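Researcher: Go.
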Amino acid sequence: MPAASTLAYVVVAYFAIVLVFYRDQDQHWFWLLAWTISVALLMKLCVKTRGASVPFIRNQATLECKATIRACTEAYEADHARRAEKLFAVGIVLRRLEGAVMRAHRRSGVVAFLSHRRREVRVYAGQVVAKLREVEAALDHSPHAEALSEIAGLAVTIAEQHVNGHTGALLPKPLLEGMKPVRDREVLRVAAAVVLIAGSFVGLASLGLPDIATVTAGTAWAVLILMVLFGSNCTRYLPVFELFKRGP
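Model: Structure:
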């Protein structure tokens, strides 16, 4: 979970859950102080752990390429009874690889936030994702062995180029000619999730239900929202709920 997303969840969910539940109490300053301390500690923790997490984050695309190659290999070697299950797994890892490709230029650490280069590499990343989706679609109308081999070959090329620091050349450009870039909508989905989850808790709190019922229903609704917005990748965002558990 990116630090910025975690902080956003803390800020919005705290006010939506804690302050709403205790709106009838007089000590609002106590909860505001607790929220301030929590955010400060979380920010300090993010700074302290940044050094250890940066190498992992920067190499996320390479790790996803490895997972894709492994999934393709398992699907290629699977018997008829398990072929459908393994092909489904290939689709899941490809979604993760797509996300890593779209974020590679942001995580590389070599492209400044306001640099004019960001737009070009973002468009290029969208073309790479479009190519991956085109090859994946071949699983529905071409021999599985050929399609899986091509997917694995693309993943190998992406991994090699990414390790060499060529974020803007993950695949040969002639291979991407005519590809319409896929837009990166993860930030919008995260923002939508924050707003919908916060709104659901506020709405449930206004019904006057017991706190335990409100928290239970709100958590279930939040998980459903994450599943709708992020699909199989929603599990990456579930640990954030640990931050909102009440003490004994």
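Model: Helices lie at 3-21, 28-58, 60-77, 80-107, 117-137, 144-163, 186-205, 211-230.
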